[in-house]
Amino acid sequence: MREVGKPKSRASKAPVPMHGLLVVSLLEWKKETPYNQPGDWVFASTKLKGAQSRVANMLVEEYLRPKAEEAGILAADDRRRFGFHTCRHSLATFLVSKDFDPKTVQSLLRHADVKTTLQLYAHGNMEKGLAAQGQMLEAILQPSAMVQ
Length: 148
Fold this sequence. Notes:
The chain has 148 residues and is mainly α. Among the domains are: 49-80, no CATH class; 83-140, no CATH class. The chain has helices at residues 10-13, 20-32, 56-70, 84-97, 102-109, 114-121, 126-141. The chain starts with 9 loop residues before the first helix and ends in a 7-residue tail after the last helix.
């Protein structure tokens, strides 16, 4: 295992859990690359003949952004900031909106404190907020069976 730099915290140093679908996808990708030996970087720099990984912004521009456009997440002319960190926020927001418990989300993002996950990464979901508001209004505004 190669290390790029020191992690910020003990939680950052923990292994990254990876779903089997992602494992299969990455193994397929690795077969197609010129640097496909055990120990080679998954996204190796071709300019540096595999001696280092590709720079993150190059990965975003060459792979992540085009896939996001293909999936309809971004328009081709959308120049907003988009990258791995944006995906971390999206993952946190998605998982919280699907009612995954905050500790599970914290663990997946490898945050040392669940407050970081909930206060900085998971964003509100307007659709769920309106649904909650509607349920509250229905409960308050429905005529009671006891009132004649």
